[in-house]
């Protein structure tokens, strides 16, 4: 295998050290990093998403950062197309692409070659299913999807409301099953090298807690306040901002609660720690599944 067909995939749960490992490896092999983090695509969300710093981006070329403003949509299909194009570009220049991140569905879709249908957002349908989930719960929404397309939950985490709603939305528009629309053109398996970066669970939790404190010290609350001001300037108030996909990033809704005086900082920190632990467990499950499949 040569650089012209190589792809190194570096995955693992939050706070495991994926980015640090990729930053150390890239200069040794002539690599460039392609982000596989669904929140790194948003501008002005740097601290809370632990986005690579300007210094890190100067040291190693990064791709697929800062593609959209927080109020703008960004689909899985768009990500797959851009990631595939970035991989081709990096290889064409004689470099090694490193696909790095914690969004399992992004990694899975790129490596397995999902051909995600391009269906424009349907606000009324989204509002309907969002209201359904608020009344009946996430499990009931996932069950609704399972009744319509049992195979859909093989590729969608049933706890990920946004993905479940998107599948229901696409099926309503196209009249086809989500699973039937997932046409695969996988990358050549022999050319994909996985590195699963992980640590003992308690150590991960401790590192995540320390990173949370560091992000607060760096000005996460100020970043959130600036985001809300920018969104309000665009006619999007704090209540509407809560429902933006970008704001589903870990911790931002809690930070918004603090900024708006609806939650104390201590309560927000406690909630973020709880959600981060849950997220770490879910990531571990998803990434182990991906490595087994590929």
Describe the structure.
With 294 residues, this protein is of the alpha/beta class. The protein folds into three domains: 137 residues, 3-Layer(aba) Sandwich (Rossmann fold); 58 residues, Histone, subunit A, CATH 1.10.20.140; 82 residues, Orthogonal Bundle (Helix Hairpins). Helices cover 54% and strands 9% of the residues. The strands form two sheets. The chain has a five-stranded parallel β-sheet with strand order 3-2-4-1-7, sandwiched between helices. A two-stranded antiparallel ribbon has the order 5-6. Helix 5 packs across helix 7 and helix 10 packs across helix 12. The longest helix is centred in the C-terminal third of the chain and has 29 residues. The radius of gyration is 19 Å and the shape is globular. The mean pLDDT is 91.
Chain-wise SSE layout:
Blueprint lengths: L6 E5 L6 H12 L1 E5 L18 H6 L2 E2 L12 H17 L3 E6 L2 H9 L1 E2 L7 H14 L1 H11 L12 H14 L3 H4 L1 E2 L7 E5 L4 H18 L1 H14 L4 H4 L10 H8 L5 H29 L1
Parallel strand pairs: 1-4, 1-7, 2-3, 2-4
Antiparallel strand pairs: 5-6
In short:
The chain has 294 residues and is of the alpha/beta class.
Key words describing this protein structure:
globular, Rossmann fold, Histone, subunit A, alpha/beta, single chain, five-stranded parallel sheet, 3 domains, 294 residues, Helix Hairpins
């Amino acid at each position: 295998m040569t650089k012209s067909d190589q792809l190194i995939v570096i995955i693992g749960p939050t706070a495991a050290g994926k980015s640090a490992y990729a930053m150390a490896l890239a200069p040794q092999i002539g690599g460039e990093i392609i982000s596989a983090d669904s929140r790194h695509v948003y501008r002005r969300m740097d601290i809370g998403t632990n986005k690579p710093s300007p210094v890190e981006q100067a040291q190693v070329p990064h791709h697929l950062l800062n593609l959209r403003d927080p109020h703008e949509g960004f689909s899985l299909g768009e990500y797959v197309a851009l990631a595939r194009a970035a991989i081709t570009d990096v290889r064409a220049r004689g470099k090694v692409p490193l696909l790095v991140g914690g969004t399992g569905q992004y990694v899975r879709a790129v490596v397995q070659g999902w051909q995600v249908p391009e269906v424009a957002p349907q606000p009324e349908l989204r509002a309907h299913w969002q209201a359904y989930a608020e009344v009946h719960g996430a499990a009931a929404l996932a069950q609704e999807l399972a009744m319509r397309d049992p195979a859909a939950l093989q590729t969608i985490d049933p706890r990920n409301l946004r993905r479940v709603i998107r599948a229901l939305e696409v099926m309503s528009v196209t009249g086809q099953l989500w699973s039937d629309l997932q046409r695969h053109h996988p990358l050549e398996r022999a050319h994909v090298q996985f590195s699963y970066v992980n640590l003992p669970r308690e150590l991960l939790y401790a590192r995540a807690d320390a990173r949370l404190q560091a992000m607060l010290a760096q000005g996460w609350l100020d970043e959130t306040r600036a985001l809300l001001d920018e969104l309000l300037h665009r006619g999007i108030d704090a209540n509407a901002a809560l429902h933006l996909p970008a704001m589903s990033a870990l911790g931002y809704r809690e930070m918004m609660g603090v900024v708006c005086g609806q939650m104390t900082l201590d309560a927000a920190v406690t909630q973020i720690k709880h959600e981060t632990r849950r997220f770490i467990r879910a990531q571990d499950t998803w990434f182990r599944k991906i490595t087994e499949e590929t």
